[in-house]
From TrEMBL:
Protein role: Catalyzes the dephosphorylation of histidinol-phosphate to histidinol, the direct precursor of histidine.
Pathway(s): Amino-acid biosynthesis; L-histidine biosynthesis; L-histidine from 5-phospho-alpha-D-ribose 1-diphosphate: step 8/9
Record carries keyword Isomerase: no
Top-level taxon of the source organism: Bacteria
Chain positions recorded as Mg(2+) binding sites: E68, D83, I85, D86, D210
Single GO molecular function: histidinol-phosphatase activity
Annotated protein name in UniProt: Inositol-1-monophosphatase
Species this chain originates from: Amycolatopsis alkalitolerans
């Protein structure tokens, strides 16, 4: 399943990279909005998901697919959870920070996954119980010793009221950690925790396709991970991933920052 996830993610990443090159060269890309005026979907997101669905139908005809753009539901067996472009706003602005994310889940639990970056070409993969890799190199989290030396990634909802509360949490956190990053693609933030490029990551309100592959990659690199529905105190829809040395103090700092109200 890891090989299948990687194969279809690479094929979709190739499509997205070529579309981006055409866009940079001046081709117009059709853009629509979803939950809010800032929550965008492009024709390239849709084409990428169509390709992934087509390839999965050929390679794994009995499995279900849940995708960001076309929806779907988890079945009894294997469900492929697909984000055809994670970081769509970055894609639209010409930034290279976006990825195709594909995970295989059984009973709602990720068992294999791949995150592929169309521009930089990085390929992140993991298999449950067997580790995580970046282009064949085994991944391990960082090991910060103090909260004030911890680099934390986060992201913000497309809903304005909620993002104001998220910003308030970040304001509380800023004086207690080394710094905060908001690169704009949740799957890559989770991969960054796996590689030690971030010490931790927290975000509320992610969808399953945002975290399905990346959270497995972080966990298999040794991160302490909690997913939406797993840590009520952090919030019912919190995604949290942290290097083990800093997970408990960071969680405590988040709780004292009023995170539960987010
Ligand atoms: C978004 C990105 C972003 C995160 C948002 C996600 P999209 O996904 O992962 O970093 O902060 O919560 O919705 O819309 O680019 O697929």
């Amino acid at each position: 399943m890891r090989d299948t996830a990687l194969q279809v993610a690479e094929e979709a990443a190739d499509l997205v990279r070529r579309a981006r090159e055409a866009m940079v060269a001046g081709d117009a890309v059709q853009v629509d909005t979803k939950s809010t005026d800032t929550d965008v979907v492009t024709a390239v997101d849709r084409a990428s998901e169509r390709l992934i669905r087509q390839r999965l139908a050929e390679l794994r005809p009995d499995d279900q697919v849940l995708g960001e753009e076309e929806g779907g539901a988890a079945g009894d067996g294997v469900t492929w959870v697909v984000d055809p472009i994670d970081g769509t706003v970055n894609f639209l602005y010409g930034s290279p920070c976006f990825a195709v994310s594909v995970a295989a889940q059984v009973g709602g639990v990720s068992v294999a996954g791949a995150v592929v970056e169309p521009v930089d070409g990085r390929r992140w993969t993991a298999v449950r119980g067997q580790g995580a890799w970046l282009d064949g190199r085994r991944l391990h989290t960082s090991a910060p010793e103090r909260l004030d030396l911890t680099l934390v990634g986060t992201g913000f909802s497309y809903d304005r009221a909620r993002r104001a509360r998220q910003a308030a949490m970040v304001a509380e956190l800023m004086s207690r950690v080394r710094d905060v990053r908001r690169p704009g693609a949740a799957s890559l933030d989770l991969c960054a925790v796996a590689a030690g490029w971030l010490d931790a990551y927290v975000e509320h309100g992610l969808h399953r396709w945002d975290w399905a592959a990346g959270a497995l990659i972080a966990a298999e690199a040794g991160a302490v991970v909690s997913l939406p529905g797993e840590d009520e105190e952090l919030g019912p829809d919190a995604t949290f991933a942290a290097a083990p040395t800093i997970a408990a103090p960071l969680r405590a700092a988040l709780l004292s920052s009023g995170i539960a109200k987010i």
